[in-house]
Amino acid sequence: MSGRFTASELAEVRAGFPLLSRTLRDGKKLVYLDSGATAQKPQVVLDAEREFYTRTNAAVHRGAHQLAEEATDAFEQARAQVAAFVGAEADELVWTQSSTGALNLVAYAMSNATAGRGGAGARRFALAPDDEIVVTVAEHHANLVPWQELAARTGAVVRWVDVDESGRLRTDQLDEVVTDRTRVVAFTHVSNVTGAITPVAPFVAAAQRVGALTVLDASQSVPHLPVDLHGLDVDFAAFTGHKMLGPTGVGALYGRRELLADLPPVMTGGSMVEVVTMESATYAPPPQRFEAGTQMVAQAVALGVAAQYHAGLGMDRVAAHDAHMTAALLDAVADLPGVRVLGPTDAADRVAAVSVVVDGVHAHDVGQVLDDAGVAVRVGHHCAQPLHRRFGVTATTRASASVYTTESEVAAFGDALADVRHFFGADR
Amino acid sequence: MSANAMEQLYQQVILDHARHPHGRVALEPDSPATTAVAGHDGCSGRSHQVNPTCGDEVTLEVVLDRTGTVPSIADVRWEGQGCSISQASVSVLYDLVVGEDLPGVDNLTTTFRELLATRGAGLDDEDAEDLLGDANAFTGVGKFPARVKCALLGWVALTDALVRTGVREEH
Description:
Oligomer: heterodimer
Strand order of the largest sheet of chain B: 1-2-3-4
Largest interface: A-B, 21 and 23 residues
Strand content of chain B: 15-25%
Largest sheet of chain A: 7 strands, mixed
Radius of gyration of chain B: 16 Å
Distance between the termini of chain A: 50 Å
Order of helices and strands of chain B: HHEEEEHHHH
Structural class of chain A: alpha/beta
Number of strands of chain B: 4
Structural class of chain B: alpha+beta
Strand order of the largest sheet of chain A: 2-8-7-6-5-3-4
Number of helices of chain A: 14
Order of helices and strands of chain A: HEHHEHEHEHEHEHEEHEEHHEEHEEHEH
Number of helices of chain B: 6
Helix content of chain A: 25-40%
Radius of gyration of chain A: 22 Å
Shape of chain B: globular
Number of strands of chain A: 15
């Protein structure tokens, strides 16, 4: 099978998500178009988490009893499943709390390297004053603030790549922005506001030309597109479970094997060490080196199932469905007077997350009217204030789709949005 | 059904204030009142408040008249951007507090906060309704907990600006 889901397949997908059948205030039907913030969970993911607790729960990587073995196997199998899903090897995947946790891990590890921590190999991560960290104006705060903080601790300088008027990253600026002083190029794979897909190759080429590390925020790409991290040739990548039909509280950092091997730890304590004396400690190899303390085992196991669920649907078909929803969303807002899209209006090379400005009506008020129609969207700056400022707005209204989104839901969004300006008298 | 909830939330009074706000001006960015300026007859204070979840902002400057037995509000000047609830609320605040003495302002602030805490039921108190005037239109906001902060943004700015005048401890 290829191409987008048939109507009956989509109905079958939806039947697997218990929350989608609930109703809202006054018996209204739910139209969930906020999957970019967090996706709903299929029953198989919910069952996996419950099953772990009801059958297998035990501390992993310690203990000699059968349950401990089974729990460890489940935990490590999930790592292999998630790694395979993004084109990586199991030992290149570190569990984190979230994408934010993964990106902070890299930034703080570099800070620790700058402070002289880690072995001789860690020197490659040390920053000096006036070294440069390159980001983009389209970053979620999670891939901006940790770098600002790293710069503040090390004397490095943050520089950035702009977007054009349609929200596409200005890859033409890379030659100027990425210099011999650049040590890190951190950029998003898909903007959570504009939905634009970043052409990764020019960023990687620019970074590799000057020997800088690449850090990819894949939070918004992994749920929508087939992602092959080895193929993309990035050094690090972050993504999160809850946006890819998995539980909250678990995400992942991908790192090239040889880089993780040299990266100093951030969180320290139990489970990440080899030999501990009263004076010092030696550290476990990756990925355990970065997984201090009790891990989110049940969530990780369920995330493994979420990855399998996507693979079962087929990511090419998920992407085809997403492309169809992208076109439907763009179409739904295209002819509405006073409504403009912040991001590409061309359905190519973007995902089904469409943010709009409604002239004369604040996004919070837009969201209220949509909520009254049962349509759940995100309003505000979506943790991307610089990008909103770049376009001269403080807030937008974002509709975002997932594997379970239907054309009729998109139509309901369009219908509700069409009423907004009239309700507030902005059309007079 | 829900049309009522929406109409209760967005009463015409609120929509009118949001479209034609009272007391909104372009404030001088370098106004000396950013913290406090005290003179013999009056003083002023300014506060900038942000709702980080939606980015709504209000900067509010209050000018006190200290010629009476208790200080009163001689003027309020404000600027802001945000949703209709937040902007209308500051406009209504302007109408209510200019000319009021500080005990009266405290009473208004407390009563308005109480109204928003009723989850849309209203205070069922004629004196309170008379006191609040146009602010009664915000009764329905209490049904939407996520919007209560919007309605309070200007009032928080007023309370903070009054503290910054430095006269709060004097009476």
